Amino acid sequence: MEVFYYVVFGGLAAVAAVMELSKTSKDRIATSSAFDAFKNNYCLVYSLMMAGDWMQGPYVYYLYSQYGFDKGDIGRLFIAGFGSSMLFGTIVGSLADKRGRKRACITYCITYILSCITKHSPQYKVLMLGRILGGIATSLLFSAFESWLVAEHNKRGFDPQWLSVTFSKAIFLGNGLIAIVSGLFANLLADNLGFGPVAPFDAAACLLGVGMAIILSSWGENYGDPSNSKDLISQFKGAAVAIAADEIIALLGAIQSLFEGSMYTFVFLWTPALSPNDEDIPHGFIFATLMLSSMLGSSIASRLMARSTLRVEFYMQIVFAVSAFTLLLPLISNFFVAPSTVKGGSISFSCCVQLLGFCVFEACIGIFWPSMMKMRSQYIPEESRSTIMNFFRIPLNIFVCIILYNVNAFPISIMFGMCSIFLFMASVLQRRLMVVAETHKSKPHDWTALKEKDSESDMLSIQI
């Protein structure tokens, strides 16, 4: 493996270590021992859940290609996953508010384990089923766990500011350190030990099983709307009313869709972008490097959120602008450096530049997750939190499906350019959110009024 990979990884590791070890009291929030125990339990479970997801990341595209499928076939498999998340995942995820968030988290484990098992089959239909199951699981991963955490945190009477501590630590571990270890371990299983690209999926299933056992033994159940008479349609209607009635919630949904849509497109494109001529690149090691960048970003986010004078709404517009520039690099590098036409070999100079840009983008992702979680905890009503969060994922999944469906219609550099435009739009919307939040800073959100408005609309429907 080339020295370049070790230099990038080592440099990022050194910066991340310095960032963590140099933290002072200004960078930390004082908490209680009871909260620390609660935080550590959640972070352990979240890390296992994310490990089950990250173990698969470096080898999803590669496994499908090894089964003989081309980029178009693989794109349709990815579309099935995002489409499933949009259709079935929205319904299943929304049921968490009514049937219980703990139960939804367990459903995630079971669904994703079944998805991992399907990877043993080279049959396209079986792999398609696995993507559908994976899409449902993804919706639960990014809604049920966060909803359970926020509700349980408030139920136990912890300081609302301490939520940012849990968010940043969970992202630092689950989306950073665990992702790095998962990428290296996946590389060890698939390449070094020669077990092949299916082995990481088997390891992921085992980790998900361990996490599910901890949830069953140590988590309590909590719900969103306590009303037993409210059906799924009423939940959707209530979520729609909350989004339509509050500009901040609508802006959060649009920003999340634009950023995460670009992020998931990046997940699909980074492998072919760094090896356009089938260059021999260490997928697992590069994945670990990208996740190290994400961990560095979450460390930066924890410092930013610890300062009460610095608002999340302000610095996120800068993060989105930087993200937009990094995904322009493939287009810029191809413009200034002629693409290589030599098949095989090592990574090219332009791809080295792109990899550095991708590392910066991953650092922005590391800042995005805890920061967005904090904004959602502030502005989304508790009674329909999971439902609204899954509503946010509908335009996200539509966006990604459109991109992946047309993956063969445009060069990869153009696809990255489109993502860059969307990220710039997210930065503009974040600026608008900051202005609106400042305007309503002294006006607390009246969720009771929204519920009464929803009830009135229900009564009108009945009368008609």
From TrEMBL:
Keyword Membrane: yes
Principal subcellular localization: membrane
Localization: Cell membrane
Any Pfam family: MFS_5
SUPFAM superfamilies hit by this protein: MFS general substrate transporter (SSF103473)
InterPro entries on file: MFS_trans_sf, MOT2/MFSD5
Keywords linked to the UniProt accession: Cell membrane, Ion transport, Membrane, Transmembrane, Transmembrane helix, Transport
CC terms in the record's Gene Ontology section: plasma membrane
Chain segments annotated as transmembrane: 6-22, 43-62, 74-93, 128-150, 162-186, 198-219, 281-302, 314-335, 347-369, 390-406
GO biological process, one term: monoatomic ion transport
Membrane topology listed for this record: Multi-pass membrane protein
Function (record text): Mediates high-affinity intracellular uptake of the rare oligo-element molybdenum.
Record's protein name: Molybdate-anion transporter
Source species of the chain: Musa troglodytarum (fe'i banana)
